Amino acid sequence: MLDITQYIPGKRKQASSGWISFNGPCCIHNGESPDRRQRGGLLSSPDGWSYHCFNCNFTASFILGRNLSAKARKLLTWLNVPQEEIERVNLESMKHRSIVGLIDDRQRTAAALQNIRFEERDIGGVEFVTARHTEVWKYLRCRLAPLDYPFMVSATLNSRPGVIIPFTYDNTLVGCTTRFLDDRKPVWVNDFQPGYVFGTDLQKSEWQHVIVTEGIFDALSISGLALMHNTISDAQARLIRNLGKEITVVPDQDRPGMELVDRAMELGWAVSMPAWSDCKDVNDAVIKYGRLATLLTIMQSRETSRIKIELRKRQIVKQLRS
Q1: Are 267 and 248 in contact (CB under 8 A)?
Q2: Global pTM?
Q3: d(Cα 184, Cα 197) in Å, to the nearest integer?
């Protein structure tokens, strides 16, 4: 299959999550000035790729086994991929479908009965965070290390200072949240669809376990999942189960977090409540102890016994009262 990354023009920046940012070639074709801030984002895999420009909001994607869409063809053309190469990719994709199409169709039909679908969303007027965004950069450096997620900020100079965290699902942009850094309220503004769980695209197929947390920075700290509240909806539970991994819920160690414990036990999932000193959540623990030590304590404190979970929960509640 075509390696689209070979056609990326000029400078590029690749995060450990796989996203490659570069000057988007689409802007001048969509009524915008040429991109000079590396607002084009590409995520590729052996089975295809997904592209989003955070300047002109142009999106395109390709999955092996499907026809090249009109948008995908436009992007490849703008990247100066030869026309004969574009047609070769499309032909190979159709051959792949003819060989494995029956199996794929059955698998997709089975998955469609369980998986949640999310609408693709656009985020306009933003740019990727760099060291020149001093306030946001300093905030993120205090919360996370390394900064290997495609964080963004508003490109509007008079906007409230804040970090924008894009939401993806199957490598498609489906929403975002903004964490404002000033003293005004609201602190968080979310745009996420019912049933969405942050961090599914951070999971790797070879991992046997998945860790479920409440907050986004908790999830980013350990490559886990974030519920973005202190409960688990039925749709979220279905999505998490579909990952096919051993599930461990790590609640915030506060009163709302204890409500999440009850829901996790109701679902029959393991719960971990490590005895961290002066740490309310996973992100606090990573900042204090480091990522590896935090992960080790999570797995060491993992419990499936309802009695032991209840005893640890009561211990935390008692500490909160004192």
Answers
A1: no
A2: 0.69
A3: 27
